[in-house]
Amino acid sequence: xxxxxxxxxxxxxxxxxxxEVLDARIPHSSKNPDFDEIFAHKKRMIxxxxxxxxxxxxxxxxxxxxxxxxxxxxDICATRKNDKAKLIQFIKKSLSERLERNKKRGIxxxxxxxxxxxxxxxxxxxxxxxxxxxxxxxxxxxGVTRGQQIIRVAEGIVLLDTPGVLWPKFQSERQxxxxxxxxxxxEQVLDIWELASFLVSESPERxxxxxxxxxxxxxxxxxxxxxxxxxxxxxxxxxKGGEYDLDRTAxxxxxxxxxxxxGKAVLENPExxx
Length: 274
Ligand SMILES: Nc1nc2c(ncn2[C@@H]2O[C@H](COP(=O)(O)OP(=O)(O)O)[C@@H](O)[C@H]2O)c(=O)[nH]1
Ligand SMILES: [Mg+2]
Hints:
The chain has 274 residues and is α/β, with parallel strands linked by helices. 46% of the residues lie in helices and 15% in strands. Strands 1, 2, 3, 4, 5, 6, 7 and 8 form an 8-stranded mixed β-sheet that branches. Magnesium ion (MG) binds next to α6.
């Protein structure tokens, strides 16, 4: 077992509930299956973060899917201040039964919630959002465990300020591509050319449609090299000798995808995965 996993098992013992943060563009690829195991006996919630980069329709499908397997889920954009209230509402609702139970039994202890997820999914941004403004002023007090700070979310609910981090697990080539394209792993880990080729030839049809629109392509054939060359031609990306600058084109394709230049994009929907 890795040290990170052992540490996470240890952390899990000290909380009552966990909020797992996934990247809304790749809910399946950004989920480390170890979380299911580590938090099997805890109350679990899923936050599909970066919803501003994903499509609302697809978020609904994912939320319904998670609900069907008994996990509360919500989509948010943690960089949007307005989504704080939405997240608080969600947490309160998700923990309402437990809150009610504690009250009935006269238990005065706060429900401890932890944020967990793979790197770059937005855990720190979510914690900062929750710690911001009013709640930070009125609710923050030092935690009891190892100097950890806690953030009061609502009456009876606190959030730990230290997120639980586990690296993604590569279960397929496609997953590695998805993770690189959304910034969960460094894109340099994979070849730029392979990444761009994957996008133009193996991404879902809806993504290819965006590529056609963005680069004014009539058709996208099965040969990724031909597509990338066509895009280079449209953009006038030439090398000194007059050849097409395919590396520059591949890099542009990836950067534009990452930055959401093509519009909202979801690389995985529940039907494609399950
Ligand atoms: N577009 C967008 N970017 C976000 C959102 N939440 C976080 N980010 C960005 O994603 C990157 C990683 O966020 P961070 O909170 O550091 O992730 P962590 O590694 O899980 O703690 C940062 O550049 C954030 O600004 C979001 O909802 N939308
Ligand atoms: Mg962080």
